[in-house]
Amino acid sequence: MNRSGTRAMLTTMLLGTLLTAFGAAALGDDGHDVRDQHEHDTLAAGRHIFRFDTFGDEDFWGGSLELHQAIEGSRLGGVGAGVSPKTALAVGLKVDVDALPGSLVRDLRAGRVNLDDPAVTVALLRLNAVVGITGVFQYPSSTSLKSIGIQCALCHSTVDDSFAPGIGHRLDGWANRDLNVGAIVSLAPNLSVVAKLLNVNQATVRKVLTAWGPGKFDAELLLDGKGFRPDGKTAATLIPPAFGLAGVNLHTWTAWGSIPYWNAFVATLEMHGKGSFSDARLSDPSQFPVAARAGFDDVRAETDLVSPKLPALHQYQLALAAPRAPRGSFNPAAAERGSKVFDNARCNSCHVPPTYSEPGWNLHTAQEVGVDDFQANRAPAKGYRTAPLRGLWTHMKGGFYHDGRFATLLDVVNHYDVLFGLHLSAQDKSDLVEYLKSL
Known about the structure:
α16 (about 330-345) packs across α19. The longest helix has 23 residues, at about 5-25. The chain contains 19 helices and 12 strands. The chain is mostly helical.
């Protein structure tokens, strides 16, 4: 064998040895691939964090705002009328049917549960059955709430209504467009901590909160103190879905940052968990007077309950694929024609498959998308993100764009038809809508 042949053979043997060693190192004692097990464990941890972790925020929602007392009502040792299951469902809270014992499911079916009784709501909290809310009880066997905390799932999960409206199996990552966050928070007996932060009275805080309406939340309120737009409408924006974000760079309406950035931001500054968060942009008193005054640009928790959970939470969210449009929810023939309209009208120049957002810096000025710049100017980058389009059918309630200004997809199509001078026919528009519904 010549010298080059010998070198080739040795190289092949070396590579084979390395691959064999790598493969052996990845196998556990039982022969399973530990890399697969690690991924499985990380996803499971991320799902648990998404669904159940409060990050220690019960010290705020219960300890400061005393929201648990409003849920219990005076008859159970709290204040006011209390929050019955019927009221909870009316403000968009959801119940996980898989967390209910069989006996309770049977009683619910038979109508033997008093849905007007706040005590039933407290019992559901004990079962961890209220999506996105955790009850903290006085002691293990107590029926009295000590506090209450919230999770990511409160806004970014719903249920499939398989048992009854508002009661069913969890749908993680779906935007809860029924949830009236403002109405729920406004029930809190003590909003003084929020009022002090904003330099207003509690009545003003409640006015701002009650204006939000179903499916909306204002993440910038505690940064810039702007409760209303110049036209008098609420400054709150629609809750976006948390699925289909793999491959998408900026994922909030106004492009604050990446998924782990926003997780840290929300867990620490919005949910008021015990975390660490840093963003020097929030030290600007002209754009973010409330945040600058409160020192939100650099928050450090003595015991950080957020940062260690960000990797698993991130991985779980990336695994949440956009759900397929169900059969019968769109016209397949029209959608096929609409896909050609989508391409010919160059919608795909911004909404690039398969993410249907833009690879790279997916941000545009208000002028480029033909809307006002109020919400854009509340964020550091002062632009609007190119929204991913997959799964649009899951969040049609509440309208489209960041603030729901367009009631229907046809309204959105008409807007771009005028803005870009597309001159689409009525048939083109109808077909394009069917295509968007199919994604």
